[in-house]
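1st attempt posting a full record on here, be nice pls
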Amino acid sequence: MAVKTLWTIDHACGHTTEADLSDRPADRRAGYARWLSARDCTDCWRAAPGEDAESKAEWLAKKQAAEQAEAQEWSEQYRMPDLEGTDRAIAWGTRCRHQLVSAAYAALVLEGTTSEAEWEAIEDAVRPLTRASWWIDQRDADPADLPELLDAATEGDRPNENPHF
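the predicted structure (as tokens):
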């Protein structure tokens, strides 16, 4: 199954637009679509006032802490390596990796036709992807697309012990 190129964007303003993301690599489309959806459409971007309620910030901090603890436990249980990036990106990327890989297991193995042996190969392909930014970019990807996204990842997303300078 190919990663879709035409995305329906539900903008923050409530309007919906269609965006052709075929000019972007397959593993970058979901992240860009998410970025677009967090913004108002072109016609409304000036009209929307910013909301930054203190209670929303507190709720978000608690939610992220709980998700972070769950993702850290999962990473240890499945022997996932630490991610690379800034402290903030590492925390976020760890949560994104946990959510995407867990959802992909459910979609491909539990609900799909992927065998446990095939899943182990997918899981082995997940481990070398240690750039936190790659996982953040994939946070809105369809979990069933994980194998194709792993294939699309570049060597830059899989750093090694002997980088070329």
